[in-house]
Amino acid sequence: MSPPAATRRGNWLALSVGSVLIVVAYFIYGRATATPGHMDMRGAATALALSPVAFLSMALLSRRESPWKRAAQATAVLVLVGAPVGLLAPIIGASAGYGFGTAITLNAPPFDHVHRNRIIGVAAVVAYSFLLLLVLPPAGVLSGALSPPLAVGIADEYSAWRAGGSKATTNPAG
User: Fold this and answer.
1) In 3D, which of 93, 65, 75, 63 has the Cα closest to residue 21?
2) Who wins on pLDDT, 37 or 1?
3) Which of 100, 131, 96 is nearest to 115 (CA)?
4) Model pTM?
5) Predicted confidence band of residue 6 (pLDDT cuts 50, 70, 90)
6) Which one of 7, 31, 142, 150 is at 20 to 30 Å from 22 when CA atoms are compared?
7) What burial letters (b/e) apply to 79-95, b meaning 16+ CB within 10 Å?
């Protein structure tokens, strides 16, 4: 039996629910790392514990094959990408980790270059959030919370647009 096809409506629903959980975890982590040179380990652990729940909800709602496996991979990517990027700013590391984790977790529509477009989109918005963090810190923090998951959805829409939108699914609306 083949894995269920991704639908655009299903992916946006998954992104909506998952993004709410990601934003909560992101701000808990932001609060935990707000004081330079000090990290509230309880807050950081809470954010890390909430992350697999966010990724699993996205995988389940988008009907991703092997949702538990994808959520575990996304959580590993969150840590492996977030830690080195977090050397620039901890909150930007979290933003990058959540963005790339979302790109891995969300069921990919059947278009060419979907994963490449997702990676480019997440990298672009993380760089933008970092620049905003330097120039206007509150906007950088907010952008880092919301932009990476949104970039994944926009990358999927861009991929659908490039493909002509006719191959989305049997029911493009949903």
Assistant:
1) 75
2) 37
3) 100
4) 0.88
5) confident
6) 7
7) eebbeebbeebbbbbbb
Contact between 8 and 160 (Cβ < 8 Å): yes
∠ CA 124-127-130, rounded to 5°: 150
Q: Which residues fall within 8 angstroms of residue 89, CB to CB, at 6 or more apart?
A: 130, 133
At 134, which amino acid appears?
A: L
Cα–Cα distance, 65 to 166 (Å, whole number): 23
Q: Are 144 and 129 in contact (CB under 8 A)?
A: yes
User: What distance in Å separates the CA atoms of residue 52 and residue 60, rounded to the nearest whole number?
Assistant: 12
> Which of 50, 11, 7, 57 has the alpha carbon at shortest distance from 150?
11
- Distance between CA atoms of residues 65 and 58, nearest Å: 12
* Segment 76-125, tens digit of pLDDT: 999 999 999 988 899 999 999 999 999 999 998 888 899 999 999 999 99
Provide the Cα torsion 56, 50, 19, 90; round to 10°: -130
